[in-house]
Amino acid sequence: MILDSFRLDGKVALVTGASAGLGAAIAVTLAEAGADVACHGNTHRPDATCGLVEKQGRRSLLLLGDLQDRTTPKRLIAETIEHFGQLDILVNNAGLIRRAPAVDHFEDDWDAVIEVTLSSVFRMSQLAGRHMLDSGRGGKILNIASLLSFQGGITVPGYAAAKGGVAQLTKALANEWAIHGINVNAIAPGYIRTDQTAVLQRDEIRYRQILERIPAGRWGEPSDVAGAALFLCSAASDFVHGHLLVVDGGWMGR
Which CATH number goes with the domain that contains 174? Predict the structure, then answer.
């Protein structure tokens, strides 16, 4: 049955940036579908997310690490495989945004955003892809892109550049690994109520301008993205490769 293809029983997932927001919602949704989940956090520990995973009757693993450190991806992948014995799903959700006009954008901020939001996605994917190739079982890699994979945004040049890179990296990896049963896809969330968009939500004028452009008439919730993530992390999407799925309430079609 087609509904069975959404089940993740016997699978192990690793979700970066899983302390709150999109990452937490995705981690818990994958657990609801049957996966054991390694939950990564940096400045905020993902204890609560791990607890919610375990409430679903699944195993969890708490991982900590700064993805600005180039050695962190290798450790996260290794600890997940050591603990669970396998890795079937990688969700590259962690990201960093620094807001400033381009003429005032500090080089250190640029470097930090690119490192966390783009370079670590490549490193995590490379390591997970290598494991999936060696295992012969294939797997799923899901990257979290953005509407700024298509648009330039305002006062976020590093973030826009990084998310544009995530979109192209997704396609490049899919081109190489699809033949081996590894699906690499991405979700481009629209305006979702998370801590990362708190600045925009507090700006009454900008909040209203955004809301008026969304055909659905509301901002998204993390659960709106989690459902799409489950599809792209399950066998239901086995013939979907290199796709950038926009989950935006219709924003891009306006």
Answer: 3.40.50.720
